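Checklist before submission:
- one chain only
- standard amino acids only
- sequence pasted in full

Submission:
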Amino acid sequence: MTSIILEDVTLDYPVFAGSKSLRTELIVNSVGGRIRRHNGSRKIHVRALDGVSLCVEERDRVALLGPNGAGKTTMLRVMAGIYEPSQGTAQIKGRVSALFNTSLGMDPDDTGYENIVHIGMFLGMAAKEVRRKSEKIAEFAGLRDFIDLPVRTYSAGMQTRLAFAIATAIDPGIILLDEGIVAGDASFVEKANRRLDELIDRSSSLVIASHSEDLVETMCNKAVLMEHGRIVRTGPVGEVLAEYRERRQHY
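Returned file contents:
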């Protein structure tokens, strides 16, 4: 059984020391989330998530909706274990495949094959599993002739294809997806979208941050509307999308 349970999750992170100048205040207020000064000090924190509670159960397909700066990406990163809550708890059961970072911490001095092994193991694959899948990963990325060369010799497109191929090679449990993960030339985007569709079909749960209403209506059975790091509504896709459209006129 897979699940994600967030209970009263709050996440603060420091930005910079503030001043009283108009310029600084304008910069501060352009940052997503809510700006907070602690105990009257000049130290500024962004409250990226504010008392968020959410339960994602097995077979759920959940869309995170909201304007830029609403906290959607931060929520994904908490679910992936990248960010630890300042307050509250995040309980994740099951293997997580986080598809919102196209670099995946690649080492440019390692070969493509070495990066496949290291990143695959970091994502939770056993050494034997990732070695068994390495040839297919290189083939999908179109890098079979380059796989033994250092990644620093790859073009940006080649690195993106390799990172995507590694991230989607995992046997899915919970998929955390940013809709902007797929990039590259038209032929690769089409192939990548097919691979994502297959991966999602095999997954236990999906959480996707998206601005696309068509994608949300097609792919998801639940939706979460976020503003300023808070959840303002959770429910069936149709109901949440209706409120999102209404509120969007005032963003």
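Reviewer check: The chain has two domains: 3-94+209-248, 99-203.
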